[in-house]
Amino acid sequence: MSLRRETMGKTVTKQARAELTRLMLLDAAAVLLHRDGYAATSMVDIAREAGVTKGGLYFHFSSKDEVCDEVQAAAVAVLHEHVARARRRRPHLRRLADLSRALMGWLAEDAKVGASFRLAREMGSNDPRFVTFVRAWLGQVRAHIAAAHGAGELSPHVRPDMAALLVVVTCVGLESAAASGTIPAGTDLASTLSELWRVIEAAQPADSAAAEATGT
């Protein structure tokens, strides 16, 4: 029995080490993909950044595209965790505002999300596998807009499809402007985005604005 427990302990430790190595590789890949882009990032670069042998990398991932898939999956998990925490907290439009500001924060602080956005920008027109995160985020934007419209939180004159497009174009534009250096480095994108929400909230019906102010 003691030998069995010792063997099981070694197996668990080996599994834990393997999972840690995998996470290190994903973190390294996210940093490189966010900073350098898809074309300039190689499997050798990822292994070197993570401090893992090339053989160790290929034990976990068979190709760079598979790494990109996993980086995006991790970014989608960040999105889903945020949505789950925010569920039922505030009116739908406020949740959308919080989500968009959270996105701006992730772009600055979470390499997985930043890498996913860059992959979509650089590679999305070539292969739909590179827009996994962006599609998930866009779907959540549309869901919030539709719910806000259905709940009367938007003026009846505001078209849900156009409202969603405005949010998406603004967020994507800010990300692109920051990545290209069009706006000064270190610009607080979340605060910048707040200006958009002041405009949108000004277009809300008076009764909806009052309800949002009271959190009802």
Automatic annotation (TrEMBL):
This is TetR family transcriptional regulator. GO terms for molecular function: DNA-binding transcription factor activity; transcription cis-regulatory region binding. It comes from Amycolatopsis echigonensis. Coiled coil: none annotated. The keyword Coiled coil does not apply. Keywords: DNA-binding, Transcription, Transcription regulation. Transmembrane segments: none annotated. It holds the Pfam family TetR_N. Residues 19-79 form the HTH tetR-type domain. Residues 42-61 bind DNA.
